[in-house]
Every structure is written in structure tokens, then in C-alpha cells.
Amino acid sequence: MTALAGLLAHGAALLLLPPLLLGIIGKTKAAFGGRTGPPFLQPYHDLLKLLGKGAVYSRTTTWMFRLGPVLSLAAILVAGCVVPLAGGSALSFTGDAILFAYLLGLSRFATITAALDAGSSFEGMGASREAAFASLAEPALILVLAGLSGSSGDLSMTGMFGGAARWETASGLVMAAVGLFLVLLTENSRIPVDDPATHLELTMIHEVMVLDHGGPDLAFIQYGASVKLLLWSSLLVRLLLPDAPGAAGWAVWALGVVALAAVVGAVESTMARLKMPRVPQLLFVAICAAAFAMMFMVK
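and the corresponding C-alpha cells:
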């Protein structure tokens, strides 16, 4: 596969595939509940419907409320350029993992600022929870990246997530996978950390921050959330599954991402959402797993 074809495939997968993962999760949850559930392509229809609607803005909000969804989506899409989906990434350089973490932080900052700008006590509560839990999820990510960097001897994400690299440190890879999976559930507001299907303000984290958004703004937020799910899923798949050249690599990556979406749906169908005081404990487990992974993987 030529470099141009790889870039086109990377862009197409990054832009077109994310909503399908939400459809797979929804279909899996419906199957566990004995229901038919919405079709796999329902998220695409929902996004198109939102894009066709208008947006209503309160007179008390400022330009930050309108900028938040756009800036958040832009940061996530740029982060997708440095994440290796299959093969290399669209933008790779030494230290790009730090840029990835900062871009996710910028996306979160934009969403939190827009929520606070609405002046709602409920959205402020969700924003404070988002910031608190993110401060515990980020150390787990940094520790996993440090371990992979020490194991691979590379400071770029393409080298770190080279496809089941360093199998002589299988224990470290398992612990890194556990830490990344827990961070995936946290960063994407999935059960047991948060329930994306509820509208009970007192129990929500991410969803409560976007209650005042509608129309295209809400579409940007939901699409950005699906892209972020794809990015975290890709990191986990590239960590565990072997890399292959050309079309075979894309097939392995696609099957791995789809399977991981089904696993997330199964987790949400078999677990209840944790109480808020329990969420930091879950993230401490992720930090410990990432710390053990770094100790196992760094020589």
C-alpha cells in the first residue's frame, strides 16, 4: 500500500467508522436484553438529523458556549492523526504521544468551559466530575505510554503501538491492556463509570455537560465522542493484536475495533454503574495496573 493510499484509508476510517461503533454497542446491549434494538447505522441517521436542525442559544451564554463543541471536535480529529490505526499514523514524530494527551485535554477543557458558560448548576456539577476523574485517568495513560516507550525504545505512538510489540513482556502488556481498557471506559463515559443512555442529572458526568446543546452543536459533540471511542479502541487493538502490512493490517484492525465495541456493549449489559465514590477507586486500579506494566516492560 502506497503512502498516499495509507493516508486516504486512515482519513476515511477516522471520519466514517466511529458512529458504527456506537451502533455495535447499542446492538450488543439490545441482544443481551433480548431485544432487536436499533439498526447498526442508527447513529449516522441521528447525526444527520441533528445537523439538519437549528440551535437555540441562551442570552446568558457567551461565544465560548458556541466554540466548545467545534473546538472539542477539532482537537479530537487532530489527535486522530497521530494515532496509528493500521500501519503508521497520518502524522508521526518523536514525542507525538504527548501531543495526543494534550489534545484530549484540550477537547475536555473546551467541553467543560462550554458547560460552565451555560451557568447551570447541573452542568457545573458534571464539569467538576469530569475534571476530577480525568485527573486520575491521565496518570494511567502516561504510565502506559512510558512503559511502552521504554519497551519499544521509541518515543512515537507508531513505534509504541507497533502491534503486539515485545511479547517477551507479556505480563506488562496484559497489565497495560487492563489499564488502557479502564481508561477507555472512563474517557468515553461508559458503564461502570457513567451511563450515556440516562438523563438523570444527579447520576451523569458527560451527558449532563451537554444538556443545553442542540442541533449541529450536539451532533459535533456526539460525533466527537464516537471518534474518541475509536481512538482509544485503536490503541488497545494495536497493543494486543499483531500488525500486518497492507490490506491485511486494516482487516485485523477493523475486526479488533469491532470486537472491542462488542466487548464494551457486553460490559455495559452485565455491570451496573458504580457509585460516584467508587469511580476513583476504579481509576486507582487503572493507575496501579499501568504502573506494574511500566515496571514489567521497562528494562
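(Above: one complete record from the training split.) The chain is about 70% helix and 0% strand.
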